User: What shape does this take?
Amino acid sequence: MSHPIHWRSLWRFLLLALWLAVGLALSQGALAQADPQGEAATAVPALDADTWRQVRSGEVDANYRDSRFDSRYNLVNASGETWRQWRNRWVSPYGLIVMGGMLAMIVIFYLVVGRKRLEAPRTGNKLLRWQALERSLHWSVATLFILLALTGVTLLYGKHVFYPLFGAGVWGAMVSGSKLLHNYLGPLFGILLIVLLARLLVHNLPKKHDLEWFRKGGGMVGNEHPDAGFANAGEKAWYWLLATAGLVVIASGLVLDFPNYGQTRDTMQWANLLHAVGALGLTAVAFGHIYIGTLGTEGSLEGMTTGYVDETWAKEHHNLWYEEVKEHAVPEEHLPSQEPQDDSTRGSSTQNS
Amino acid sequence: MATMKFMCDAERCIECNGCVTACKNANETDWGIQRRRVVTLNDGEPEEVSISVACMHCDDAPCMAVCPTDCFHKTDDGIVLHDKDLCIGCGYCLYACPFGAPQFPQKNAFGERGKMDKCTFCAGGPAETKEEEYQKYGANRIAEGKLPLCAEMCSTKALLAGDAQEIADVFRQRVVRRGHPDGGWSGNPRRDQSRTGAGQPDVSAADSLAYDAARQG
Assistant: This one.
């Protein structure tokens, strides 16, 4: 009889030993439960500094969950405030300063120096400068540029002027119309500008005499006329500005215009800043281009409207080009109603100007 | 006047998404629009923590500052509302918002954004009639003297909505009772106190039920 009792007590002993071992292992937790002070000191913090750093950095790891459908957002959009400060504190006020400063400089220049008139009388003989295709491209791009500048400036500054002026009803229609025009004309402008740039590339390759032109300030003041081919160095600078900053504005505009290609919020912040800086800068320089092409220089505008310029104008402003094409001068009364389709009258001018 | 705020107690949020569903139902938002989202950090790890996020009705709201149409306004209760008649769907509020609150229904070609939609603190928005208001912005529970439905329906009362002072008091009491040096998210005085070593907080009165076995890992 003693045997079975003995075995049972041994089994109980083993159980007790196991209980003690488990109890020892758990004693830390049991102590903490009894002592809130200790618990407070040893508890795992809800969020440590590393997690906050990660949240602020904008990156998400494999253990990040967002219950929103299709969401790619971190908990906190850390770059949003940076974008806001850049846009509101730098881009918008300085855009106004740059554009206003340019306008002021033009007005002062006009009042002090005045219009650049032809020095010699017109000869009445005309040279073909801009073909119909180039003119229609130029005016299409110019019209779109002005529309995009007006709508863009409305989107950036309009709320400070037109909202208080006209009230919510008119302003609402105005700003939604601006956005619609801006978004739909933008890509068209981009395509046409690229075609125009390709068409005019040969005229705008840098030459050695361009440096001299810059050194003399283009002869804007005084009677000096530095050497210039079909395009002078100033026109070339405007061309290359459009070919660089202009393309950046177009590319960033497309990023903003088509948000359906999965670009992130951060990408669009950058695109927005580049777009605004580039477009405001180009608008300011365009003021100069418009002034020189219309009021600033006698005889320039007719080149882009009729296609023909006077011999005197060509001789004074584009002497190297004039030397190449002077044989093709046509008396005003013999001007064809439609200029020839081939390049012959303009000669091989452009390639070796 | 009150200053309305949301506050989510991350110690209590159990990631049930009840707030998301309540909001969706109360406001009958467009397809694909979900004004609230629940974010979980360190999912599946001991430090896992969840928080429900929507428009936080900022004092210095970035969306208001960058909106090209000035369609936002702040009510006397500190609620940030917007006028969908003025919204042009440019997306700038989304670029600026710290919380990813603005959303845009996509109904047009080329991913063109529709009128922005976001949490209104269940306070509706500018409209001629009640029906129009509901259709555009969802419920106006504030006008009925009620708080946002997300917070009202939160099963663990993690999500608090109401006057900033009141919900801060509720939260502060919870932190004290929990006896946890980091009972909130950050920036609470107890945490700073323990970090600077300026005397351990007296937690002798802490509810022993606040003991969190899961955190003893």
